[in-house]
Specification:
It is elongated, with a radius of gyration of 20 Å. The protein starts with a helix and ends with a helix. The chain is mainly α and 93 residues long. The longest helix has 26 residues. The chain has four helices and no strands. It has two domains: 33 residues; 60 residues, no CATH class.
């Protein structure tokens, strides 16, 4: 009985590892691609993500990019995640 449970855990572990490797393989090419399209105003020129003192302003200002945004495009959680990414790796993915 114990051996059967162990076998199931091993199979599940292999499936999870396989999915991780597959997903990493799919997205690994994106680590060497330059910034394009909306990346310039969302990341490169966005001062809100470059300094921790703006974290509360992300949620209260109604701004999220370096350019005025269209009504309904306020996404503070996205900008917060970009801020964390910038904190750990600057402009290097």
């Amino acid at each position: 009985m114990l051996k059967k449970k162990t076998d199931n855990y091993n199979k599940e572990f292999l499936v999870v590892i396989g999915l991780f490797i597959f997903a990493f393989g799919l997205y690994s090419y994106s680590l060497s691609v330059p910034f394009v399209f909306d990346d310039n105003h969302m990341i490169v020129r966005n001062n809100l993500i470059k300094d921790a003192r703006y974290i509360f302003e992300i949620f209260t200002s109604g701004r999220g990019t370096s350019v005025p945004i269209i009504k309904g495009m306020f996404r503070p959680m996205l900008v917060l995640s970009l801020s964390f990414n910038y904190f750990f790796s600057k402009l290097i993915p």
